[in-house]
Amino acid sequence: xxxxxxxxxxxxxxxxxxxxxxxxxxxxxxxxxxxxxxxxxxxxxxxxxxxxxxxxxxxxxxxxxxxxxxxxxxxxxxxxxxxxxxxxxxxxxxxxxxxxxxxxxxxxxxxxxxxxxxxxxxxxxxxxxxxxxxxxxxxxxxxxxxxxxxxxxxxxxxxxxxxxxxxxxxxxxxxxxxxxxxxxxxxxxxxxxxxxxxxxxxxxxxxxxxxxxxxxxxxxxxxxxxxxxxxxxxxxxxxxxxxxxxxxxxxxxxxxxxxxxxxxxxxxxxxxxxxxxxxxxxxxxxxxxxxxxxxxxxxxxxxxxxxxxxxxxxxxxxxxxxxxxxxxxxxxxxxxxxxxxxxxxxxxxxxxxxxxxxxxxxxxxxxxxxxxxxxxxxxxxxxxxxxxxxxxxxxxxxxxxxxxxxxxxxxxxxxxxxxxxxxxxxxxxxxxxxxxxxxxxxxxxxxxxxxxxxxxx
Amino acid sequence: xxxxxxxxxxxxxxxxxxxxxxxxxxxxxxxxxxxxxxxxxxxxxxxxxxxxxxxxxxxxxxxxxxxxxxxxxxxxxxxxxxxxxxxxxxxxxxxxxxxxxxxxxxxxxxxxxxxxxxxxxxxxxxxxxxx
Amino acid sequence: xxxxxxxxxxxxxxxxxxxxxxxxxxxxxxxxxxxxxxxxxxxxxxxxxxxxxxxxxxxxxxxxxxxxxxxxxxxxxxxxxxxxxxxxxxxxxxxxxxxxxxxxxxxxxxxxxxxxxxxxxxxxxxxxxxxxxxxxxxxxxxxxxxxxxxxxxxxxxxxxxxxxxxxxxxxxxxxxxxxxxxxxxxxxxxxxxxxxxxxxxxxxxxxxxxxxxxxxxxxxxxxxxxxxxxxxxxxxxxxxxxxxxxxxxxxxxxxxxxxxxxxxxxxxxxxxxxxxxxxxxxxxxxxxxxxxxxxxxxxxxxxxxxxxxxxxxxxxxxxxxxxxxxxxxxxxxxxxxxxxxxxxxxxxxxxxxxxxxxxxxxxxxxxxxxxxxxxxxxxxxxxxxxxxxxxxxxxxxxxxxxxxxxxxxxxxxxxxxxxxxxxxxxxxxxxxxxxxxxxxxxxxxxxxxxxxxxxxxxxxxxxxxxxxxxxxxxxxxxxxxxxxxxxxxxxxxxxxxxxx
Lengths: 457, 131, 500
Fold this sequence. Notes:
Chain B has helices at residues 32-38, 84-88, 92-95, 120-130; strands spanning 11-13, 17-22, 25-30, 41-45, 52-53, 58-64, 68-72, 77-82, 104-108. Chain B is α+β, with helices and mostly antiparallel strands.
């Protein structure tokens, strides 16, 4: 058993004597007898390091990862290439093992990374202020709603039907606490209609929340949606894909007040859904309503440039029940991975990546929809993801593609969009080449042929 | 200013606020003791002009780096002026709490409330009791 | 810049990655185009596109690596030195965990992959659920919450769901006045009002005050045991009885679970809901402020309301994500929780086993009491007395009040001087109940020599202050920067790199 302890029998003697007790149990005199554990925990005995590694490798082998098949899964997390320098830097002890930077003089590295991260998020979103990250995407949506609640105390959150299902669910759960409720605006040809939105908002609307591109991959007209929200006096929130912001009009340009999003596509592993980071940026009007940590620039006693956590009176450790959020720390290491990825891509590379994705995704949609039995679920512009409807059982198609072709064609939409029982959401990253896309098309054609029996391969 | 001082011409509230009466108006601020306890003031979250403030109730917040403090109104009245200089340079509350660090000016609704406040001697004795 | 200090780190100009940017430099090489090169305007109309590119840095790969490696050297970290930060449990982070979590079967697994293709991951989560249930003595677990504060929110929302399901509207949640700030902040987010319960002279909950404040309007009492003072509350079963008699739930903030693993269990104490900090007790590296994970365990009466999904095992031994829980409060985040954290914490539990977990808590308590004893020695004890003079659990509180009066230095000064001695200071000014407090948590993975060296350093700093208090007042001297002007940062916030 590895227990990482160092105490020897001699140590124990010396220490107990110094403390002034005869045995270790004397230290536990405050724990009443009736609640002390009499037996051992019902857990397996400890193991050696190599045994534990073997066990975890065995478990890993029983998963089908993106190394084991050609995956077109998306729906909030994407198999982008993570550059090697990300692994090298985030695995450094100096970034991996410190706590939150409570002592800024010995945390300048982490604090400067936060400052650089905040700058990157402001650049991506076109907004004034970013915090140092929150847990992940869907809870960031709930955090934005709580900011709106703090500002206007209006209990209704009007959301697009194509906000990520997990974001909608998270918002519903969280807002129920402070008495908020969620109202959904349905889609028209794949996007949120500004007219429908205008009809749904009113004086009780605290915030309007949409996703860009939306869950079905379609690019929303954020400007007109923002206008409709603002006419009702509501806060406009957009949950954005950070990679798509390489190309798309920024939330800032579109009148969005608070932009949030899932940061995983920026330099983070899939990790079966986490940890990643959520980003949260806003106009300066929300500076004192921001949740979480914010790093700021200052000088030291000798006039040197340095960084500290700032605007801390917003936070739970000072303002307690009046805090802007209960969040304590952030996702510093994941946000570092995001900054590294963005620095590696660089100003031109980031745009180039976006254009590559847009062209490959467009190609994939055209090729797939050329198959009999595949129709586009909408025809809106897309960046990295699109949705189709299959003339056949989507789960059977997925299973056939996985088993017979080693291809995961995407995510079945039925559970979250019952109106599309055979809808399929397909994501294309830069890791999926034209050859992969062509193989996907062959696999889906073959699957439809096999499952429907009417389409020749 | 290393030492606390409490001018004779002011009236004091137990939440460590001072009042300077000027005709039917009154100027509010926080005492040397309050600014010392708070530390370097970094932000003044002020009420609006024409807002009503109520005696014994908080009307604003002052923030230091690691604390937030409610500021209590010693008297009831209507805000007629704010100290914009403190909004710009909150450190004035520390450097000159009774002068340039004043917070706001109100039109008093009930001058009899002055009788419920302490003079400098009573406030100093009150502070001695706290420590 | 000031004149050279002889300290290369201090002499180095602080430059951001944006300031290193030069037009024309890049690290990334784009893949050659393979699909038809359609004009972008045809597929993504200009009206939907941004006017100007994001002003990301233009830097080469070697520059990026050097920039961030140099930044890393401006951090203090657990792998370099003693980090007795109270309530944070800065125990060793085993390197095995990083290797295991990086296996592609774990790290490159997509969260929307079908259950049939994620059996290894689901088994891992199922086993972790079981282990956490066993350690807490509460049978039902949700791994979903992302951090301790998120686990608290889950717990309070579960309390709300439990009361609402019984048609019992309640509006107050009690927290001790020693509570961590996340407790009251969470209570407000979940729509309740906070009422504080006082602390008795022995550091425990003031039972009379609790009895005075409990009523059928109280939904929950949130408690940490051992408390944020590092003390085990011997009255816990009576506290639980008072709370349950009033129909309220009892919530256990698991920040201090590292003191009691295998020794006693929150479930056996009478708690209904527990959150774990996997980044504390179960040694997920803190990452400079995240990621962590905050799973919760609950009693039978709370179980129907647990967040979805939970991992279930079917009769045939296969595992699946169970979304079909009609009374569930719903989701608190996307997907299934911080799986990468689960891998590490599960590896830790596998390594230690039942006996190892108990041994870890025992040694955590032993180390804390030994360090507390070292702090009582002449030269330290008269300046930094322990706030509550009884056996502590895994951490203890010192008061710097006498030090301030005797030597003219504050706890902040002592903490800053420790930086020059190569130590991370304890938590300072928390809990607020104790004047000039220091909360010291050595953890079980530190050696006796480390604890003794730390005590010697404190004695030296205090002796030095007796001669010249300005040494500590102006510390630190050897760090990459010296004391920073936090007031200036807050008055005039510069929270992003200005461009052009």
